[in-house]
Amino acid sequence: MKVLYVxxxxxxxxxxxQLANRREELDKHVTTHYAFTKDHKGRSAFKNPxxxxxxETPGELAGLIRENNYDAVVIIDTPAAFEALDQAEFKGxxxxxxxxxxHRIEYLDEVPPERYEAVLTPSSYVKSYLEExxxxxEEKVKIVPNCVNTELFRPFNTDEDVPDEPVIMWIGKLDLHxxxxxxxxxxxxxxxxxxxxxFYMAGGETASDRVVNEFLDVLSRKRLTxxxxxxxxxxxxxxxxxxxxxxxxGGFTVSTSKNESFGMTMIESLACKTPVLFPxxxxxxxxxxxxxxxxxxxxxxxxxxxxxALQFLDHKERTLKLAEAGFEQTLASYKPETVVRTYLDMFxxxxx
Length: 352
Known about the structure:
Layout: E1 2-10, H1 14-26, E2 31-39, E3 52-54, H2 58-68, E4 72-76, H3 80-88, E5 93-97, E6 118-121, H4 124-133, E7 141-143, E8 167-171, H5 180-193, E9 198-202, H6 209-221, E10 228-231, H7 239-248, E11 252-254, H8 264-271, E12 276-279, H9 284-287, E13 296-297, H10 302-314, H11 316-333, H12 336-351
Parallel strand pairs: 1-2, 1-4, 2-3, 4-5, 5-6, 6-7, 8-9, 8-11, 9-10, 11-12, 12-13
Helix pairs in contact: 1-12, 2-3, 5-10
């Protein structure tokens, strides 16, 4: 079976990384190609660069489809792909993947259900949203969780460069969805309680000059420039080292997102046995269950967020136990072999 995945942006973001995480295991069973409409230097996410194409127009994408005789085309938040399918007179199966609930999926209002066989999504939260918002039938929406590359994201020794203060790391684009202003407010609040902590912010390379200038201005006004290290390009290959460095320092990974359809950075962090502190939004409560729920806080509640951060820092033994429990759950549920097995079972049922 030969499958083409179509997505807008080849960048080091969640969707690209998820495609790369699945690819090595998927390619043991099917041939996969990937078409992106814009190149934002995200090719390094893929171990194997073959079969990755930049098709900037529907015509270019249609040509690729005609040349390769795909059995299925999987479209991810890229409505222009439907024009390409029409131009190519594609007769195979069309499947949608929906990784989030942002405005980028509003195109689904214009796509009749008969144009696709199924919709794949990473969580019960997104499944429910699609069924309620777009009236997609329950039978068409299938849940396949994201997976994490456990060969890359794993605990390892970083003793030679562990900071002498606990490090709290925030990861994401510099946008209001990821809510970077709240994180800087949190930094200020936590430093008022104890000053023996440092902060990393990883991501933001694609932000506009206006947003970057605003971010740097807020950083300066809050007098955080000596405490916050900004790593604008969060290369996938560097992230395991950062997660382990943070965990070994006695710190943890934190999120201030307004919504999370899955929480990939949370799973990556736990795969490295580094604790997390995430808002109870979107899919997070369905993943951080049982004792792992201690690693959640009420969304945008900076008082609870700060209090839990202090608990993590003050009660290290308990925090390490939570990280261990999260690590075990991640290995059991989100390894590529486990997820791809589920993915292929569902995929073959739809395509055959």
